[in-house]
Specification:
Chain B: It comes from Paenibacillus phytohabitans. The structure holds 2 protein chains of 2 kinds. Chain A has helices at 2-22, 26-51, 57-64, 82-95, 111-120, 133-137, 150-155, 158-161, 188-193, 205-218, 236-241, 269-280, 293-302, 314-321, 361-371, 374-382, 445-455, 460-484, and strands at 70-76, 100-106, 127-129, 178-187, 224-226, 256-257, 262-263, 305-311, 328-331, 346-349, 352-354, 387-388, 434-435, 438-439. In chain A, 41% of the residues lie in helices and 12% in strands. Chain A is α+β, with helices and mostly antiparallel strands. Chain A folds into 2 domains: 70-176 and 348-398, 3-Layer(aba) Sandwich (D-Maltodextrin-Binding Protein, domain 2); 183-344 and 422-502, Periplasmic binding protein-like II (D-Maltodextrin-Binding Protein, domain 2). The termini of chain A are far apart. Chain A is built from 18 helices and 14 strands. By secondary structure, chain B is mostly helical. Chain B folds into 2 domains: 1-49, no CATH class; 77-313, MetI-like (MetI-like fold, Orthogonal Bundle), CATH 1.10.3720.10. Chain B has helices at residues 3-15, 17-58, 75-81, 84-97, 100-115, 121-133, 136-147, 153-160, 174-202, 206-214, 219-230, 232-247, 253-256, 268-276, 285-309, and strands at 61-62, 70-71. A two-stranded antiparallel ribbon of chain B has the order 1-2. In chain B, a hairpin with a 7-residue loop joins strand 1 and strand 2. Chain B starts with a helix and ends in an 8-residue tail after the last helix. In chain B, 33% of the residues are buried. The chains are: A alpha+beta, B mainly alpha. Chains A and B meet through helix 1, helix 2, helix 5, helix 6 and strand 14 of A and helix 2, helix 3, helix 6 and helix 9 of B.
Chain lengths: 502, 317
């Protein structure tokens, strides 16, 4: 404290001295300036000396050193499986005969920005996980098709190696390694406490609303029926778009209707309204709009939230990241009338791409082969860290029995991989189209529109009107993209698509 | 004298031994100062001029940081004219700057107290400056926890005092979120302004007060006719730094609300930040640069206008 006080005193005195400094004689200024300049010059000289590395004796020493390992930089944004992957990477680094050293770097929320900065600085990693469409379009990834040997093909489900319609020139930029399903999770303890049957999750949206009210009422202001993490507006996809699949309200991803070949967001109106009503009724964990997904998941793990939308990766989250202190289970999302008219949505996603301009391309290919090895996926599957397209990892015998949620997130016979939406180039229409005050300049505008409607507590007719406008804007944008030659809508059409498997 | 003759005279003068001596005297006297200035000028060129030039260029381009840039002429400016979120963010920024109405009077009154021979004044100084020293993001996180409607300290206190019967969702409501951020920012910055005011007060010569005492001026009159006018120059700077500081601040809102709910706390500089660092939502550096450049021009106008308006605050002139 005394030190802190003296700092404050000195600071005050320095400020006091400002006026006096103005009046200091010029000769003193000159002397000071000369001294400082000398210091700068000396520092500069010092740097030059140090920078003369070529002539240093260490260079000679290096020449006689044993063959150095080739460092392969791998960037990922996946944290839940970090422990397993890092231990396997460590083993690989110690044992591989090719002198490859994988430098495995994990990034958090700023992953995309880091990749962009690296691209502009010419420092892109040799291998990157989950690269964005922008990076793919910018020519980062190596086409993996020639690397897919019959041996690799035999080890994966067909969906892992299918080139998506969004791919550039039919190139495969990653082996799609994860199968992600989207489900409802619920706290069985809270169900019991509210007098509900913990083995009977809600079947209709009305039931879900009633259950949420009951849980909230019995929670004494500490427990709530629902959670909604829309500080990250991206989560509207998980709370509106994916849940709508089982009601048969979608024929494609992200508002795209692969049957009609048009965008249509109007089916989502009733879901947005449902959330508005639940929030008004006080069934949603308080502070909506100020919580991101981690915060809401932490509250679920603590046993303060009854029901949440979740995905396969949440198995790892509720077993490791935020170990749940309650008995929880997985269920399908409810429907409006209790009958499923569509299959639960799943997507194949994620994978490692190789930098085609890597300085160590051959070593990068070997590192990539290790990253998609059976050993890697089996180890991840054994720890319950996801569902995989790798066939060895799908073996039921290796699935952990002590990890909650594993069974619930497995793909069922009715699960559906919904058709992909066109990859639009939003810059084709510039200045962008508008929906209300929002620019249709990015795919996330769908989330922003839903968020705006929710936060303004709009009524159903207004919600429908706005979502109609959003669909119109996207259709105009798709037309403009077609005209500009950036997409071919025919690649995204599936006129025979049925959301419910027979 | 013709122009040609004048030029030849100048050339002749530069070669004159007397002039050479004058030049070497000049170099001896001011050379080190110019040498010293060279370093900051280089830094200025690299870290200020280059970014400014970069931003000016991209006003006329579409550039997302990945794909090659594309010349789009005036499209970004047209978009800006129609951008309701931007224009309303300007009003919010102006409204946010009104927090100096809380911050500066509080700082001034406290400085007056601490200028007296109050016991333990150094402890109070340290206490009041503490919020300024702590990192802003940490303070915002603490405030975020305090304002939490579920188990936040402030709501718990209000509930215990029976002042409310339901927790207030401070950060979920537009106005409450905005006001919370204003109060927090004022609280964080009043300490440093208090120090500036103290410096201003201590720079007033004691004999002026003694003369005023002899003339019978005490209390309010001393402050009104001596303290405030003689602090004019520093007051002008405090006001300028505060106004400009708040006009180019994103406040605590990046951590507290990230501009929400519904853009209610989307200040202009937070909006610019979001254009550059949109994350998975996508970035548009060209449009971000347009918003930044237009806003910077507005701030230049405000700054020049401020100095013209406040010229008479400086009693030295």
């Amino acid at each position: 404290m005394r030190l802190f006080l003296s700092i404050i005193r000195v600071y005050t005195k320095q400020l006091k001295g400002l006026n006096n400094m103005m009046n200091t004689k010029r000769s003193k200024q000159g002397l000071l300036a000369a001294a400082a300049a000398l210091l700068v010059l000396m520092t500069g000289c010092g740097n030059n000396g140090n920078g003369n590395g070529n002539a240093s004796p260490s260079a000679d020493t290096n020449a006689s050193a044993p063959k150095e390992k080739v460092s392969i930089e791998v960037w990922v944004n996946s944290r839940h499986d970090l422990e397993v992957r890092e231990s396997l990477v460590k083993k690989f680094n110690e044992t591989n005969p090719d002198h490859i050293e994988i430098n495995y770097k994990v990034f958090a929320d700023n992953y995309e920005e880091q990749l962009k900065l690296a691209m502009n600085a010419g420092n892109l990693p040799d291998i990157a996980y989950n690269i964005s469409a922008d990076l793919a379009n910018a020519g980062y990834p190596l086409d993996l098709n020639p690397l897919i040997t019959p041996e690799i093909r035999a080890r994966f489900d067909e969906s892992a190696l299918t080139v998506p319609p969004t791919a550039k020139n039919g190139e495969l930029d990653r082996v799609f390694e994860n199968v992600t399903t989207f489900k409802l999770i619920y706290n069985k303890d809270l169900f019991k406490a509210a007098g509900l049957d913990p083995e009977k999750p809600p079947v209709t949206w009305q039931e879900m609303s009633d259950y949420a009210k009951q849980i909230t009422a019995s929670g004494g202001g500490q427990k709530f029926g629902l959670g909604l993490p829309v500080k990250q507006t991206a989560f509207w996809r998980y709370y509106v778009i994916y849940p709508s699949a089982v009601s048969g309200d979608i024929n494609g991803r992200e508002g795209w209707n692969a049957v009609t070949g048009k965008y249509d967001f109007s089916p989502f109106a009733k879901y947005v309204k449902w959330w508005i009503d639940e929030n008004k009724a006080g069934s949603v964990f308080p502070g909506v709009g100020t919580y991101d997904n981690d915060m809401i998941r932490a509250q679920f793990a603590e046993g303060n939230i009854g029901m949440l939308s979740a995905a396969t990766w949440d198995i790892g989250v509720f077993n490791d990241q935020f170990p749940a202190k309650n008995d929880w289970a997985v269920a399908d999302f409810p429907t409006w009338d209790g009958t499923a008219k569509g299959g639960p949505a799943y997507e194949t996603a994620n994978g490692f791409s190789i930098n085609k301009n890597s300085k160590h391309l051959e070593e990068a290919k070997k590192a990539w082969e290790f990253l998609i090895s059976d050993e890697m996926f089996v180890e991840l599957a054994q720890k319950g860290l996801g569902s995989f397209t790798n066939l060895a990892a799908q073996d039921k015998a290796i699935q952990p029995t002590d990890r909650k949620g594993v069974d619930g997130f497995v793909i069922g016979d009715s699960s559906v991989d919904y058709p992909m939406a066109p990859r639009l180039d939003y810059s084709v229409v510039n200045p962008p189209l508008k929906v209300g005050s929002l620019d249709v300049s990015k795919s996330a505008v769908v989330n922003d529109v839903m968020n705006q409607l929710f936060m303004s507590s709009k009524e159903l007719p207004d919600i429908e009107k706005t979502l109609q406008e959003l669909g119109d804007a996207f259709n105009k944008l798709a037309e403009a993209n077609t005209a500009a030659g950036t997409i071919d809508l025919n690649n995204y059409l599936k006129p025979d698509f049925k959301p419910l498997k027979p | 004298m013709s122009k040609l003759t004048a030029e030849s005279n100048l050339a002749g003068a530069s070669l004159h031994p007397g002039s050479r001596r004058a030049f070497s005297r000049f170099v001896r006297k001011y050379g080190p100062a110019y040498l010293m200035l060279l370093v900051p000028v280089c830094f200025f060129a690299v870290f200020s001029l280059y970014p400014i030039g970069w931003a000016l260029k991209y006003v006329f381009y579409y550039y997302d940081g990945v794909m090659p840039e594309r010349f789009t002429g005036m499209a970004n400016l047209h978009r800006l004219m129609e951008d309701q979120i931007y224009w309303s963010s300007l009003w919010k920024q102006a409204l946010f700057s009104l927090k100096i109405l809380i911050e500066l009077p509080l700082a001034f009154v406290l400085a007056l107290f601490l200028y007296s021979r109050l016991r333990g004044r150094n402890i109070f100084r340290a206490m009041f400056v503490m919020p300024y020293i702590l990192p802003g993001s940490t303070m915002a996180l603490v405030m975020y926890i305090l304002l939490n409607p579920y188990n936040g300290g402030l709501n718990q206190l209000l509930l215990k005092l029976h002042l409310i019967d339901q927790p207030i969702q401070f950060l979920s409501g537009g106005w409450t979120a905005f006001a919370s951020g204003m109060v927090m920012d004022a609280w964080q910055n009043f300490g440093i302004n208090m120090l500036f005011f103290l410096v201003g007060l201590t720079s007033i010569p004691k004999d002026v007060y003694e003369s005023a005492d002899m003339d019978g001026a005490t209390g309010w009159k001393r402050m009104r006719y001596i303290s405030i006018p003689m602090m004019g120059r520093i007051l002008q700077m405090i006001l300028f730094l505060s106004i400009l500081g708040t006009l180019k601040s994103m406040g605590p809102f990046l951590v507290l609300t990230n501009g929400g709910p519904n853009n209610a706390t989307e200040l202009t500089f937070l909006y610019i930040f979001h254009q550059f660092f949109g994350g998975e939502a996508g970035s548009n550096y060209g449009y971000g640069a347009t918003v930044a450049v237009v806003t910077a021009l507005m701030l230049v106008v405000v700054s020049v206008g401020y100095f013209k308006l406040t010229k008479r605050m400086d009693y030295h002139e």
